[in-house]
Design a protein that fits this description.
By secondary structure, this protein is α/β, with parallel strands linked by helices. The chain contains six helices and five strands; from the N terminus they run αβαβαβαββαα. The protein has one domain: Glutaredoxin (3-Layer(aba) Sandwich), CATH 3.40.30. The protein is globular and about 40 Å long.
Amino acid sequence: MPYPEMLVAPMREDLVRIGFKELRSAEDVDQVLGNETRTTLLVVNSVCGCAAGAARPGVYLSLQEGPKPEALTTVFAGQDLEATERARQYITGYPPSSPAVALFKDQELVWMMERHQIEGSTPQEIAAGLQEAYAEHC
């Protein structure tokens, strides 16, 4: 059962305020991941502590300098169930994971950071991993 929206709104806003587009329905996901040819970052957001303490701050830090994805998108696991399920259909070869960060290029998944890579990492470590992916694919 999803958390009340008033509780998750600040967690959504962490990414929206830095330019991420929320994908809140399966149709939203298909419109972007099914059609976008630019490099696209998809953050699978979550209410868990590692999303708040590491993933979202790490994503923010990763976008401060150097190459970066052209499109920034997010789905919210446990909240926007249909959108998250559809996004996971595009993340092939990986089990469901939240938080998680996926990088797409020409509609193809080219890089993935799963929850087990986020847990126990600092925002700076996450940012460094993302920046390496951006340097290679963006």
